[in-house]
Design a protein that fits this description.
disordered C terminus, about 25% helix, alpha/beta, about 230 residues, seven-stranded mixed sheet
Amino acid sequence: MFNEWSMRGGRIDADDRDRLIRRYSFAVPSRAAVRAIGDRAGTGVVELGAGNGYWSRLLADAGIEVVAYDLDPAPSERNPWYAGMPSWFEVVSGDESVVVAHPDRALLLVWPTKNEVWPADAIERFAGAGGTTVLYVGEGAGGRTGDDRFHAILGEYERCASCALGIPTVPCICGVRPAFRRVETIELPHWDGWTDDLYVYERDDSRGPIGPKPSRHQGRWRRGSS
């Protein structure tokens, strides 16, 4: 995937990007990112929303212990992105509840779906089970991955824009307690017009207990093209 990115200088059209996502991943990995994940992995990595397992395969090839889950792993016909596609790694069917069985590992989320609740539920459950490290590949708060609650739990919001600025279309996050803080950012290769990177978060208990009890996810994962 990195080779294709290099040959194209990061410039591709939407159809080519979709093709590369289906074959590889939503984000372009780098050796620096794999090394950084290995440095933070502890006893290993649990990847949630792993799709076809491309990132998990890279980590496993680097000697990192990995377990991977997705609601509908490739080549499931129920997966809108990876239906009929070959898998790079063994990805087991599972939702966000599986993370509670792996608090000793670092939790990896690569391009969690925008404005769906499962990513936030996953990191809340992970923190509640004693998890300490979250590895997030995507765009920053307000971008095209995760939702406001997800980024609030990761400590990326200092105030609620809905209340502070009176924006009725933005969800209120006043009741969400941050459970993590960012400790490192590793820049990734970017497709032209995209700004996803690897963000490393460590548990932060200084601001009290984590937010409200997780709700069940609704709808399918990665419904749109983002």
